[in-house]
Amino acid sequence: MKKITRRKFLFFGLAAFVSSAFVSISFLSFERVVFYTIKNDLSFLSVKDAQIEKFIKDARKQNHWKNKFFNWKKQLFVRLSYMVSIVWANFPYAYKYRQYRSEIVGDFLLSTDFFMNKMDEDEALNYIALYHPYKRACSNPFSNLYYPHSR
User: Fold this and answer.
1) What does the pLDDT read at residue 89?
2) Torsion of CA 127, 49, 84, 78, to 10 degrees
3) How far out from the chain centre does Cα 148 lie?
4) What's the longest Cα–Cα distance across the chain?
5) DSSP track, 36-77
6) Rounded to whole angstroms, how far apart are CA atoms 103 and 126?
7) Is 127 helix (H, G, I), strand (E, B) or coil?
8) Dihedral (CA of 99, 104, 107, 112) sign
9) Cα distance between residue 110 and residue 112, in whole Å
10) Residue 147 backbone class (left: φ over 0; alpha: ψ -120 to 50; beta: rest)
11) Which of 66, 107, 148, 151 has the fewest Cβ atoms within 10 angstroms?
12) 78: buried, middle or exposed (CB in 10 Å: 19+, 13-18, 0-12)?
């Protein structure tokens, strides 16, 4: 009977971990990660799954992620980071993942009526259209028209 050395054990363990990570990543698409990210980050708001699905469908149709410079490397990074963040909160480059995640959630919020409803957290969010400042005229969500004057 052959003995297994520590080096072989670590090599096979690492190979099993890497292969299982790639298999699980291949089943978890970028759009699914976007869906779960929006759902988790906005859990304090009333967001229906259908609204998020409409956002993702429009983003796919208008090639939104590639226009926002989410090339395949960034999409893979977001998918990997999403998987790792479930187990390990402060992994290397977690700050970059939080930045990308904030961009995704921000795009979704700008595409809804959240700011038009004066950021009322009790109102249900309704998806309007994919946010594009040049296509949606007069849609500045940070305008003083949406907020009461504090005088």
Assistant:
1) 79
2) -30
3) 31
4) 84
5) HHHHHHTTTSB--HHHHHHHHHHHHHTTHHHHTT--HHHHHH
6) 19
7) strand
8) negative
9) 5
10) beta
11) 151
12) buried
Question: Which amino acid, one-letter code, is at 101?
Answer: R
Beta partners for residue 46, in sequence order: 124
Which tokens go with 30?
A: 């970028």
Tokens of 120: 């009322």
- Lookup: tokens for 16: 């099993």
Place of tokens 């995640």: 101
